[in-house]
Amino acid sequence: MTKRLEGKVAVITGGSSGIGLATAKRFVADGVTTVFITGRRQDQLDKAVAEIGGNAIGVQADVSKVEDIKKLFLTVKKTTGSIDILFCNAGIGENAVLGEISEDLFDRIFSINVKGIIFTVQEFIPLLSKGGSIILTSSITSGKGLRANSVYAATKAAIRSLARTWTAEFKARATTDHGEVPLGEADHDKVIRVNVVSPGPIETPMLLNGLSTEIRNVIKSHVPLGRLAQPSEISSIVSFLASDESSFIAGADVQADGGLTQI
Ligand code: NAD
Asked: Can you give the residue ranges of the Ketoreductase domain (predicted)?
C-alpha cells in the first residue's frame, strides 16, 4: 500500500523538538522523500536529524529574521527544487499579566510567532509551484481566556486569521501564474491549502520546562480526557492535513485539546 506522503517534500520550522520533531518523524514514517527541519541551534538540529533518520536535513534558521528565511529558501530550492508541505510550527510563549508586558517581550513573541510565519509562507510560495499543503500551529489559547497569556494568545489568534485570509488569496492564485482566471479542472490538483492545528496542553519542553507537578495536575484536572497529550497526537493530525486525504479541508482550525475548550 502507498504511504500517504509518499514522494512529497516537507519543510518544518521549529523541527528540533516537541511537536515539530514528532511531526518530522511522522512525515518520514508516512513516506516523505525529504524533510527539512529548522531551528536556531545547529547542535539541536544535528541531534534531531540523527533521531529522525530517513531523509532529514537540518538547516539553521531563526524565523524572526527574514534574512535567515531567505537563506533557508535558497538551501531548499537548491536541494529539492520544490516542496509539497510547509509546516510553520516554530513558536515561543512567555507569560506576563497586563501591567507587566514589556516591549521586548511583545517584540520577541510577535516576531517569532507571527512575523516568522508571514515571511516564511511568503518566501516559500514559489516552491509550492505544484500546489500543496501549508499547516500553521496556533493554540487553543487563541480562543480561550487564560491569565498572563495576552501576548501569546494574540499571536495565536493572528495565526488563525492568517489561514483564513490566505485561503481566500490562494483561491485566485492557485495554479498557473496567469492571474486571476477561473480555475480549470486540470488545475485543481495544484491548489494550495492552508490549515491550522490548535493544540491544547502537550507534553513538550515548552509546556513542561519549569512546570511543577502541582500545576501539571491542575491543568490535567481541567481536561475532560484527564491528561496532557503527547506530541505524536498532534503530528498525526498534521500528517493528515499535509496529505491528499484532507483534500477538501481548507482554512480550517483543527483543535486537539482533550475537550478542554468544549466545556
Ligand atoms: P518546543 O519548545 O519543544 O518547540 C518549539 C520549536 O520552535 C523548537 O524546535 C525551537 O527551536 C523552535 N523555535 C523557537 N524559536 C524559533 C525561532 N526564532 N526560529 C526557529 N525556530 C524556533 O515546543 P512545542 O510545544 O513543540 O511548540 C511547537 C508549537 O506548538 C509552538 O508554536 C507552540 O506555540 C505550539 N503549542 C504548544 C503547546 C504545548 O502545550 N506544548 C500548546 C499549544 C500550542
From this structure: 8-185
Q: Is 205 in the pocket of ligand 1 (CB under 6 A)?
A: yes
Task: Kindly give, in sequence order, each residue whose CB lies less than 8 Å from that of residue 250, ignoring residues fewer than 6 positions away.
Answer: 167, 191, 193, 194, 195
- The beta strand positions in 108-171, using DSSP E, are 132-137
Q: How far is the CA of 86 from the centre of ligand 1 (A)?
A: 15
CATH value at residue 147:
3.40.50.720
pLDDT (tens digit, 9 = 90+) per residue, 41-74?
999 999 999 999 989 999 999 999 999 999 999 9
Per the CB < 8 A criterion, the answer to whether 197 and 163 are in contact is no
Q: What are the grid coordinates assigned to 117, written together?
A: 510565519
Residue 86: give the domain boundaries: 9-256
- Domain count across the chain: 1
Task: Please report whether residue 262 resides in a domain.
Answer: no
- 2 assigned to some structural domain: no
Give 117 Cα–ligand 1 centroid separation in angstroms: 12
Q: Is residue 120 part of a domain?
A: yes
Pocket of ligand 1 contains residue 207 by CB under 6 Å: yes
ipTM of the complex: 0.99
pLDDT at 134 over 90: yes
